[in-house]
Amino acid sequence: MPHSDPTPAVPPSSGPAAAKTEAPAARVHAALTGPGGPFAVVREEDGPHAGSLVYADGPRTLREFVETTWAFGDQPFLIAGDRSYSYGEFFAAASALACRLSEGYGLRPGDRVVVAMGNRPEWQIAFWAAQLAGLVAVPLNARWTEAEFTYALDDCGPRALLVDGERMPPVAEWVRRSGARVIVFGGGGGEGEDDGRRSAREVRAGGLAEGVEWYEDLPAPDPFAAPPEVEIRPEDDATIVYTPGTTGRPKGAVATQLAQAGAARNPRFQAAASALGRGVIPGQGPAPVTLLTFPFPHVAAFAGICAAMSVGGAVVLMREWDAEEALRLIREHHVTHYSGAPASALRLLAAAARTGDGLESLQVLDTGGVAAPRDLVVQLTARYGERIEPRNGYGLTETGGGVMADFGAECRLHPGSVGRPTPSTEVRIASPTGEALPDGEAGELWLRGQALVRGYWQDEEATAQAFTGGWFRTGDLAVVREGRVDAVERIKDVAARGGENVC
Questions:
Q1: Which residues on neighbouring strands pair with residue 279, listed in sequence order?
Q2: What is the spatial distance between Cα 374 and Cα 92, in angstroms, rounded to a whole number?
Q3: CA–CA dist 437, 263 (Å, integer)
Q4: Containing H/E element for 98?
Q5: With the C-alpha atoms ordered 321, 326, 329, 333, is the resulting torsion angle positive or negative?
Q6: Which of 95, 205, 274, 442 gets the most CB atoms within 10 Å of its CB?
Q7: CATH 3.40.50.12780: which residues of the chain?
Q8: pLDDT digits (tens, 9 = 90+) for 62-92
C-alpha cells in the first residue's frame, strides 16, 4: 500500500504563520506520494528490507540509476579547476574502468574495491565503475593515517584499490602484504598533486610495480563502449562505508543496492517538494550548478552528487575549503546550490558580508553533516531575505544520507527542526524500553526505511545492538511535533549533563 502522510493539514495552536507553511507542506507530500505519484511507496515483502517502505518506481540498483545519466551527453557534470567531465565523458570513463576491473582483473559481483582519493573527478569515476561492475565500493577517508587505513583494509579485504598518488604511501605496506591490485590516479592538476604523484612513483620503484597500474596509462575510454554484462540484484551489497569511530574502532556500515537506490532518490524527492512549496513545477528551468564541499566518502556528498545526477546538474569541486575561493567559484560558475557543513556555510556568509558579495546566482544553501545552528538561517534571511532558500536535514552513515529535510518557509519558521522524513522513511520516538511515544515527548529516534543499511560488516553483535525488529536505533534524542522532527542530539550528551531535557 502506498504510504500516506499522517501529518495534520494545519497543526493546532501553531498560529496563522505556521498554517500558511505547514498546510502546503502536507498537500505537497500527498501530491508527490499519492497513488500514481512519482514518489509513491510500497512495503517491501522480502529480502533485507522486508517490512520497510520502498519507492514503488525508480531504480532498484545503483547501476540502473547511473545508466540514466548517459542521456545527458555533453552537459557538464564534474568541474575541478581547469579539468571537467561531461556526463558522456564520465560515463564512458566509468564504463571502461568497470570493464578493466571485471574483465581485466577478474573481479566478480560481491568483491570489494576500495576508493581512497581526495575530492577529484576521478573519485566519482572509480566509485561508479565499481557499481557498473556490480562490485562493493568501499570509500575510505582520504585523511586517515596508515594505521587507520590498515585497519579498514584488513577488515573489508578488498581485491583492488583505486587510489590517488597521495594515498599510495599509507596503503603500500598493506598492498605489499596482501597482493591486491592497485590503480593509481595521478595528474589532473590541483595543489599537492605533483608531490603525491612523486611519492607514489617512489613507492612503485620500491617494489610495488607488480600489480600496480597508472590510470593515465590505460587506453582512452571508448565513448560507445558499454559497461560489463553482470547481474546485479537489489539485495546485493553495494557499499561499505565506515562510521567515524568516535567511541572505538570504525564499523563498516553495509548498504544494499536497493538501499543506495533509495538514498539516491531521497534528495530528488526533497528537491521536488521544495519546488512545489515555492509554487514551481519540479524539473523546469536550467539544470542546477552545485558547489559541493563535503569529502566524497561522506554520505552527504553522495546525496549531493545523486541530486545533481538525477537532473543533469553540474558539480563544482573543491580540494580544500576556503571561503574566498568558494565565493570566486560561485561567481565564475554561476553556482545555484551550495552544499556543505554548517560551519563552512557560516564562513561563506561571513566572507560574502565582508567583501560585499551579493551571491547573486545562489538559490539554495543546503547544510548537513551536523545540526545547523539556528543563527545560520537567521543570518541568511536577514541578509538575503527569501531569495536564497535554506535547507537543513538529518542523516547518518547508516541512513545513506539525509532522510529528513527542512527547507524554505518551514526552515525559517522552525530553524531548530531537521524537518520531515522522506516518503520511504518511517520515524519512531521510543522510550528506553522501546515503546512508541506520542507527539511532544522526547525519546530515542528510531528509523526504518529503504535507505538504511542492513547492518555492520562481519559484526553481528554491533548489528544486533543497533537494529531491533527492522528499526535502526540512532542513539539520538528527538521529539516529533506535528510531523516535524525537532531538537536532535546524542543521548549520551544529554546523560553527560545530568539528564537535562533540552527539547
A1: none
A2: 44
A3: 27
A4: helix 87-99
A5: positive
A6: 95
A7: 15-61+240-496, 62-232
A8: 999 999 999 999 999 999 998 999 999 999 9
